[in-house]
Design goal:
single chain, mainly alpha
Length: 97
């Protein structure tokens, strides 16, 4: 799962770099917000897997607090996805001339 999360983060960063050079208004772009949500969630999951591995060897306050924040990071990512969903433009009506 660690490598899967790392790959998703790398692909999202690559897409954001492309959008920075080819787009004007990034914060109104749903793809940009979806990539930001993916980066936030999966970077946290990388840290979470690390903290979970550390907590198996012994209890520490830092790993306990990292493991506790899963629901909050998930909620933040879902809010970012909801904003991106609301910014998707309505499809244009097709007319054949």
């Amino acid at each position: 799962m660690f490598f899967y999360s790392f790959l998703i983060v790398l692909l999202s960063v690559n897409e954001i770099n492309f959008m920075i050079t080819h787009s004007r208004n990034l914060f109104r772009n749903p793809r940009f917000l979806i990539c930001i949500g993916l980066i936030v969630y999966f970077v946290y999951m990388i840290v979470y897997y690390w903290a979970f591995g550390i907590s198996r060897f012994g209890r520490s306050e830092i790993s306990d607090s990292i493991l506790f924040l899963v629901a909050y990071v998930n909620a933040l990512a879902n809010i970012i996805y909801a904003i991106a969903f609301l910014l998707i433009p309505a499809p244009q009506k097709f007319t054949l001339e």
